[in-house]
Amino acid sequence: MKSNNNTSRKNFLRLSLLTGGGLIAGAGVIKTVLSDKNTVEAPVCGLSAANTTVITTGGKVFKVDEKHLTEIKVAPVSNAEARKGIPNKKFVMVIDLAKCDGCKKCTEACQAMHFTEPQREWIKVFKMKEAKETAPYYFPKPCFHCDNPPCTKVCPVNATFKREDGIVLIDNERCIGCRMCMVACPYSTRFFNWSHPELSYASQHTVYSPEQSFPRRMGTVEKCDFCPDMLRQGKMPACVASCPMDVIYMGDQNEDAVTNGSGVTVKLSQLLEDNAAYRHLEELGTDPRVYYLPPKNRKYPTPNMNERGKGEIERTVKSAKADVMKM
Amino acid sequence: MIDSETQELDQEIETLREDCLRPTRHWSAVTIIWVIFLMLVAAWGFGVYIYQLRNGLGVTAMRNYVSWGLYISTFVFFIGISHSGTLVSAILRITKQEWRRPITRSAELLTFVSLCFGGIMPIIDLGRPDRILNLVMFGRIQSPLIWDIICILTYFTGSTVFLFLPMIPDLALCRDRLTDTKSLFGKFKKWLYTTMAMGWHGSAQQWHTLEKCMKVMTIIIIPIAVSVHTVVSYIFAMTLRAGWDSTVFGPYFVAGALYSGSAGVILGMAAFRKFYHLEKYITPRHFNLMGQIVLALTLIYAYLNLNEYWIPAYKMASTEGALLGDLFWGPYSRVFWTLQFGTVLLPIVVMATPIGRRILPLSITCIVIVIGAWIKRYIIVVPTLLHPFMPIQEVPADWATYFPNWVEWSVTMACLAGIFLVITLFAKMFPMMAVWEVAEGMELNHDKKIAYAQRKKREEALLETEKVVIG
Q1: d(C-alpha B171, C-alpha B175), whole Å
Q2: What is the residue range of B29's domain?
Q3: Domain check: are A211 and A286 in the same one?
Q4: Global pTM?
Q5: How many domains does chain A have?
Q6: Which chain A positions have a beta carbon within 8 Å of B241's beta carbon?
């Protein structure tokens, strides 16, 4: 499921159309990212040296003159549709903390799908321990897509918005970069493009839509988007599909059904009822659309709170003191 | 006897006019060096801002946790300073405090200038200033930032009018007494004064209209000023963040603004008194009275400050408790307690005594208050951002700490230099005291004297007749 997910990703590919040349006139071809432009000679029509390897929708591989290729950029949905949401849906996520072993495959898959730099974790696996005597556990945290979102409330230009299907998105073509949503979000879910983002080839050649959150732009905010472009195709978000432990369920509240990465569908209300589900920081009143099943009878080793991960720092009194000393 | 007194009054007013116009007539070498220095600082900061524009806000020390830093702190500070003009000018006008006359102009100017640069700060902080028109095209009234923009623009318009209206008779004076009309600069000045004076010739009708407008503006500007710093506090208080989620934030910010702004006015008074030789008009009495006002405002501020920290400190709720720990005994404790003692307790002790309200100790206290108010804004903005509800784990080292870097300092100092530059240039172009208002005060004083003399005369005459009758 995971590998299939990556290769079928339409945004990894550039849709091109063969407009001329007698060989496969009028047929749609897809130019792969891996095409080598300069090393291959031109066997087709013998027109010029600029050749590109293409594959047809039928799977045949050709080398064609670039002159015959016209690039067609297609946005998945219009901005108006992206702001409205998928009709008759109410997306909901359930995360079973009892099953999470903190492998961070969800984070990796998410970063691969959204071409995110390594430190920017749209879904982040925290090591949690509420009090000295309580048990530690792993806590994957995506955007909660709150029903009472503090972030969209404060946006001065409606660049971040709540859709009818429950998803909170950001339109980075409208965002002015005031970062009020970042200070308003109690869950540190949002990230800012402080500098010119490094755009991968594929993300550069993708038409922007708030539904896929790239190509990213300098001076704008981004965050976990629940992969609405995948949901639109009836597929699972990257984190759900990639989780080897089936920790994350995604589904539609209207249907009262959620599905995990292995494709097992369960009744949402039953799942929440049986496991005494809760929402993180319920007292803030943000009404998250992400439910947690308590880390009871954990099936995997719990985190070692004393061990630091690679590159991890803890905000210590010492480090902050160094800041203040400069004052 | 009355005639001679009237002559004396005329002479006094004449000296006043010349004293006020003198600084506009020639530029001393010191002034020129000062202006060049300020321009260099501003130009450097402007260059650095261009660098920031090209490379993004990543060139600053701000990162994902501390996403608001020195720029936003300075925004709050400048807007706070801008409350000075309203307080001194409008409130003292409404309460008919005669002693206000020589200090209203500089207070109103301080409001105008700090509001200009205060308003620029959030734009400097924007990730996409090129999209600023989105605020007009897609503006949402639900956003506290839009409240800020509306209130600040309203206050800016109001305080510009409030500064300009009482300048009109003085502009006419400048126009009529312009000595240098031949040079290019002189011609420019003539054009400027003539245009801005709008044909003022001091007719009874014009005076009547001016007074009416001033009355209306005086009343309107006070609620607008209160609204401005209230909504500035709302960009923090409307979030769920520990340390900002406070119902006292509105009045706390307004009190903090008034107290730092009034201290700013005292510094302006001291500076103009010294550099423009206005010792005759701005007297120790003015400092004494302003000192009492700042004392009263400091007490109000201290009271709200107590509420802001003592109530959560008693409870020490989880995240807020950690934040307060940072402030009370953690990394920020030294700064926090220095501010509490140096800008709250100490000013109260100093200003409570008449000696403390003398020019020198008062000015020093006010410097401490103003700088302290700036640092205080920083202490309100930054530590809260380092205390999110989610733990800070496995992030690059620079995300979890913050101290403004050279880019932020350069741009911020350029804005500060801009404030000084505009004030200096203004003072070289226009009288820094409301000449006609001070003259009016002298006339009122004179009338009072005459009325008193006349009454005394009548009483004496009456006494004489009584004596005669009795005799």
Answers
A1: 6
A2: 2-470
A3: yes
A4: 0.86
A5: 2
A6: 183-184, 186
